[in-house]
Design brief:
The complex is a heterodimer of chains A (about 550) and B (about 130). By secondary structure, chain A is α/β, with parallel strands linked by helices. Chain A has helices spanning about 1-35, 45-55, 65-80, 90-105, 110-120, 140-150, 160-170, 190-195, 215-225, 235-245, 265-275, 290-300, 315-320, 340-350, 360-385, 395-410, 425-430, 435-450, 475-490, 520-535, 545, and strands at about 130-135, 155-160, 175-180, 205-210, 230, 255-260, 280-285, 300-305, 330-335, 355, 415-420, 455-460, 465-470, 495, 500, 505-510, 540. In chain A, strands 2-1-3-4-5 form a 5-stranded parallel beta sheet, with helices on both faces. Chain A has a 5-stranded parallel beta sheet with strand order 7-6-8-9-10, with helices on both faces. Chain A has a 5-stranded mixed beta sheet with strand order 12-13-11-16-17, with helices on both faces. Chain B contains 5 helices and 5 strands. Chain B has one domain (about 5-125): Rossmann fold. In chain B, strands 2-1-3-4-5 form a 5-stranded parallel beta sheet, with helices on both faces. Chain B is globular and about 30 Å long. Chain B is an alpha/beta fold. The chains are: A alpha/beta (about 550), B alpha/beta (about 130).
Chain lengths: ~550, ~130
């Protein structure tokens, strides 16, 4: 049997080789057939040749070429049916040229693509990340270590460059935090990092820390290959944000929802398959008039819209969407064969955000959509979130709660709503100053972000008040979760002028469907919070009705 | 006489035909390959295949029309059918199923697993 397989593999290679040698002639034939009859109904030959290439290229190790031919075939099918008016000769000509380019890239592109998609796949579990800290000021280093460990990072401290080298030799950290100024020299930190990164195939991400916030210092950091630069005293929130970004925890492709609007069912399905293979969620509509029905439920991060559709153009659809306040920020990316800059600008002027040119390769489509969705989401975050904490702001909390409550009712699952208030916050502000108060608020926000589960939503409700939405969570489960958080928060140490102090919070919980109306739900949680305060603070109270099963 | 399954195979592309032949040989299949639907019909008169394997899109008579003609022979009225085609819409696959296909093999296919794919479809049909 093994021998037989060997000969089979050999034979396959021989067949592939022959396919490769005949490929240029095949593409010549395709081009010739195209030049001869273009898009006429008589041009069956062209269609047949494209179809045949689509069906065979993948089998012989030209996956990408096959895909591209397949997309062209789908397009030709559409044209046969007569569904598309505008997309005529030009895009097809581009496709034909594309085929040749892809052929020239060589075969077995498929393997590369597979690896690429694999990398994009969502990470299943959150692992504890290892951080190395290069810092000679041991007090500072230990304080940072304590704070980072609260957020579930594992930290090891090295007080000199040699020790760091040894540490890295035994285990690679996920991120390196390095002080620039070390006893070895004013720029010893950045020099050491430059050395480390030289010749490394996958260099360790680095964040520099320096007491000296100068242009030159920052430039040195950039040149040494740093991802970020933080000045001392280090703002822990800024540091955590940088870590999230580097470790890719803040945004994952799997979170992106893409709505595809294209009158061509075949092409829409093709785009959906490609984006889903890269871990995104998609939904297709073939008729722009359905947009307003689908949007509230699917809540896409981005709309990928064909520019030319029979009943309503993409531009018109975008204009209709922009009439709705809710969708004024929703990114719309047009997918079009439109090359004319002026027409593109017209489309952008009425509310499109970007253009992608058809035909587009799978890899390009995934990257283009992903980076736009990510960027747009970051921008949205700036608009809907509280500036100090990065949590949802009050208005958006209510919008979100409304949606979550109706979803919970529809699925008949329970939802817990939590109100949290920092105890005696006024005395923190009065005693230690507002900057310290802000620090307390930020640290609670970070703790919430880190400890909450996927799907949970945290918001800053007002001054020192926070609100949490916990979908699919019974009152008792919510109590356990929040009480654990309360204990953890109480252990965080703050310092002011060498005085250490702790802060506590109280919380009230109410659930839906015990309170099916959103305002009633908020009021019930608020009452529970009031009871917690009355009973002596630093405790969690669940609303009576919400505990009954 | 071996126990090989006799497969009536119709595919207009010679290179695909060749790769299929090699993928199925020594795997318990005996292939009778035809380039055109009309050839298959004349072959079928004196052949009792265990499986019909048809390309969907062919010049002249396409896969579904060829199948209709083949079904007119009483001895082929219930022979299992597998279509080979580039994956398109779900609706299309349903259409083939309605024609009595026990499955569809997407193109491009992997020559190293084609035999298994066919065996699985036959197995599932029997179950």
């Amino acid at each position: 049997m093994p021998d037989e397989k060997m000969t089979k593999a050999e034979k396959l290679i021989a067949l592939r080789t022959r396919f490769r040698s005949e490929l240029p002639a095949r593409l010549d034939a395709i081009e010739l057939a195209w030049q001869k009859d273009k898009l006429t109904t008589q041009n069956e030959e062209f269609y047949r040749l494209v179809h045949s290439l689509a069906g065979s290229a993948g089998t012989f190790g030209y996956a990408k070429l096959g895909e591209q031919a397949h997309v062209l075939e789908l397009l030709l099918q559409e044209l046969k049916v007569g569904a598309t008016e505008h997309e005529q000769a030009e895009p097809i000509e581009q496709f034909v040229t594309n085929l040749r380019d892809i052929m020239l890239l060589g075969g077995d592109q498929g393997d590369k693509e597979e690896i690429f998609f694999h990398e994009e796949s969502p990470v299943a579990t959150k692992k504890q990340h290892l951080i190395y800290l290069l810092e000679d000021d041991i007090n500072f280093a230990e304080e940072l270590l304590n704070q980072l460990e609260y957020f579930d990072y594992r930290v090891e401290i090295f007080d000199n460059v040699q020790a760091l080298h040894d540490g890295i030799a035994s285990q690679q950290p996920d991120v390196l935090l390095a002080d620039i100024h070390l006893p070895e020299g004013a720029e010893a930190g950045s020099q050491a990092v430059s050395e480390l990164r030289k010749g490394a195939t996958s260099p360790i991400p680095v964040i520099f820390i320096s007491a000296l916030n100068s242009w030159q210092n920052r430039l040195n950091a950039v040149r040494a290959g740093s991802q970020a630069f933080l000045s001392k005293p280090v703002n822990i929130n800024a540091l955590l944000e940088q870590l999230d970004e580097i470790l890719g925890e803040s945004l994952q492709a799997s979170d992106f929802r893409i709505l595809i609007v294209d009158d061509s069912e075949l092409l829409a399905e093709h785009y959906a398959n490609v984006l889903e293979a890269a871990g995104m969620q998609t939904q297709i509509i073939n008729e722009p008039s359905k947009l307003l029905d689908v949007l509230p439920e699917f809540r896409p991060d981005l709309i990928l819209m064909d520019l030319y559709m029979p009943n309503c153009s993409g531009v018109e659809a975008a204009q209709v969407l922009r009439q709705h306040m809710t969708y004024i920020q929703l990114p719309i990316v047009f997918l079009s064969t439109e090359k004319a800059l002026e027409k593109q600008l017209d489309a952008l002027y009425v509310g499109g955000d970007d253009f992608l040119q058809k035909p587009i390769s799978n890899t390009h489509l995934v990257k283009a959509v992903k980076c736009r969705a990510q960027r747009f989401r970051e921008l949205t975050a700036l608009m809907t979130r509280d500036g100090l904490t990065g949590l949802l702001n009050h208005i958006n909390l209510k919008l979100t709660l409304e949606r979550e409550v109706s979803q919970a009712l529809r699925r008949s699952s329970s939802l817990s709503f939590v109100m949290i208030d920092i105890d005696n916050f006024k005395s923190v502000n009065d005693g230690y100053g507002h900057p310290t108060g802000d620090k307390v608020i930020k640290s609670l926000a970070r703790l919430l972000c880190q400890r909450l589960r996927k799907g949970d939503i945290a918001a800053r409700y007002g001054g020192e008040e926070f609100a949490l939405i916990l979908p699919d969570t019974e009152g008792q489960v919510a109590y356990d979760l929040i009480d654990a958080l309360r204990k953890q928060f109480g252990q965080l140490k703050y310092t002011y002028n060498n005085n250490e102090f702790n802060v506590t919070f109280s919380a009230g919980i109410a659930t839906c469907p015990a309170h099916a109306d959103m305002n009633e739900l908020i009021a019930a949680a608020d009452t529970a919070l009031y009871q917690a305060k009355q009973a002596g603070r630093s405790q969690v109270v669940v609303d009576k009705d919400s505990l009954k099963k | 006489m071996s126990n090989d399954l006799v497969v009536l195979y119709i595919e207009d592309e010679s290179d695909i035909r060749e790769v299929t032949e090699f993928a199925l040989e020594d795997e318990g299949f005996e292939l009778v390959s035809c380039e055109l639907g009309s050839q298959a019909i004349s072959q079928a008169q004196e052949l009792k295949p265990d499986l019909l394997l048809l390309d969907v899109m062919m010049p002249g008579m396409d896969g579904p029309s060829t199948l209709k003609k083949l079904r007119e022979f009483p001895h082929l009225a219930n022979t299992p059918v597998i279509f080979m085609t580039a994956k398109v819409q779900a609706g299309e696959l349903k259409e083939y199923e309605d024609m009595g296909a026990i499955g569809t093999i997407g193109k491009p296919f992997d020559p190293m697993t084609l035999a298994d794919e066919i065996r699985n479809l036959l197995e599932r049909n029997r179950a």
